[in-house]
Amino acid sequence: xxxxxxxxxxxxxxxxxxIGEITWAIKDGIMTINxxxxxxxxxxxxxxxxxxxxxxELARKEKxxxxxxxxxxxxxxxxDNQYADVWKR
Length: 89
Description:
Oligomer: single chain
Radius of gyration: 12 Å
Mean pLDDT: 95
CATH topology: Aminopeptidase
Largest sheet: 5 strands, mixed
């Protein structure tokens, strides 16, 4: 599995197939994460959490705050204080 960074998303690929992604838009220093998804055959392996962590790592590097519009990301932020420094509440 590989993680590929694109302009507004991170994609997980296996071979030549996309099996997961997290997408966002950036405006005025805020990364609005609007979607996280993993192929049904690969769910339950922690891939969505890895996508969130990589997006958060990118936001920290770029000094961005995150607006977790995606329900999965919002739930992770609500559960775990490790994201408090980037969460735009």
